[in-house]
């Protein structure tokens, strides 16, 4: 596919000049090629969704995290410039200011038509459907390694009392390291908290730096937290999160 063939060679220069966004240096390696098949499959899932639903019937669930940032970029590359991307952002009770700023910057960079809500995810989606009955499907950046996501299908309707719509999971087969390979190989901006030892982002009250990334820095002669992309064991991705059992749009708690 044209998009996939250009993926590893295309550098978005305008991203590099985005103010307030972190753009890390990276050396391309052969490991990047391992993502090619997954990217092509992701594109196929998105194209299938686009044949089933009209543009105004689909939205992206975007919270500024690394996974939905990847999904946003892929969707933007596949969407004609004349067709604005619709997205929904549900603000947590105690959000990180850095994450809020990154969401705002992403709206400007991609020209998102963002709907903002606060509180519980399920209630926010109910409000979304009540305000816009045309919405029938939502893109989500969940991966199989995420809680309650191991048995998901790429296209799966909501259940258990959630607002009726089709959930679309184009990144199910991607790994933690795949996400970081995409972000860094494409020089994409991401939330600066990931460079401060955070590997997974949630509410400020339930998220802390990941102790797995604490290491001695010889240059600084002190212990510091390495960036998220240096986490070796991806099973420790959510080691910095306290889960409080809020229902998730991806899993069985719906």
UniProtKB/TrEMBL annotation:
> Which controlled-vocabulary keywords does the entry list?
ATP-binding, FAD, Flavoprotein, FMN, Nucleotide-binding, Nucleotidyltransferase, Transferase
Does the record carry Transmembrane helix as a key word? Answer: no
Q: What molecular function does GO assign, one term?
A: ATP binding
Among SUPFAM superfamilies, the record links this protein to:
Adenine nucleotide alpha hydrolases-like
Look up the domain of life of the source. Answer: Eukaryota
Q: Cross-referenced InterPro entries, in alphabetical order? A: PAPS_reduct_dom, Rossmann-like_a/b/a_fold
- The Phosphoadenosine phosphosulphate reductase domain covers which part of the protein? 116-208
| Keyword Cell cycle belongs to the record | no
Q: Which reaction does it catalyse?
A: FMN + ATP + H(+) = FAD + diphosphate
The protein's enzyme class: transferase
Query: Pathway listed for it?
Result: Cofactor biosynthesis; FAD biosynthesis; FAD from FMN: step 1/1
EC no.?
A: 2.7.7.2
Question: Could you mention a single GO BP entry for this protein?
Answer: FAD biosynthetic process
- What CDD domains would the database entry show? FAD_synthase
Pfam family example for this protein?
Answer: PAPS_reduct
PANTHER family the UniProt entry points to? FAD SYNTHASE (PTHR23293:SF9), FAD SYNTHETASE-RELATED FMN ADENYLYLTRANSFERASE (PTHR23293)
Spell out the protein name for this chain.
Answer: FAD synthase
Organism listed in the record: Drosophila simulans (Fruit fly)
The encoding gene is Dsim\GD23899
């Amino acid at each position: 596919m044209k998009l996939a063939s250009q993926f590893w060679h295309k550098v978005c220069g305008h991203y590099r000049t985005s103010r307030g966004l972190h753009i890390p240096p990276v050396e391309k390696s052969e490991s990047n090629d391992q993502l090619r098949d997954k990217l092509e499959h992701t594109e196929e899932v998105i194209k299938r969704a686009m044949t089933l639903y009209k543009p105004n019937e689909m939205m992206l669930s975007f919270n500024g995290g690394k996974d939905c940032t990847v999904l946003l970029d892929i969707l933007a590359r596949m969407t004609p410039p004349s067709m604005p991307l619709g997205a929904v952002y549900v603000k947590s009770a105690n959000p990180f200011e850095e994450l809020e700023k990154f969401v705002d910057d992403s709206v400007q960079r991609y020209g998102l038509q963002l709907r903002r809500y606060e509180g519980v995810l399920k209630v926010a989606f109910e409000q979304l459907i009540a305000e816009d009955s045309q919405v029938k499907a939502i893109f989500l950046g969940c991966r199989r390694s995420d809680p309650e996501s191991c048995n998901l299908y790429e296209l799966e309707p909501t259940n258990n009392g959630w607002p009726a719509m089709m959930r679309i999971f184009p990144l199910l087969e991607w790994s933690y390291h795949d996400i970081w390979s995409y972000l860094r190989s494409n020089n994409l901006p991401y939330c600066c908290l990931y460079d401060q030892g955070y590997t997974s982002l949630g509410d400020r009250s339930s998220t802390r730096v990941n102790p797995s990334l604490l290491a001695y820095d010889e240059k600084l002669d002190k212990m510091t937290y390495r960036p998220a992309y240096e986490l070796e064991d991806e099973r420790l991705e959510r080691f910095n999160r306290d889960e409080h059992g809020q229902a998730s749009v991806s899993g069985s708690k719906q």
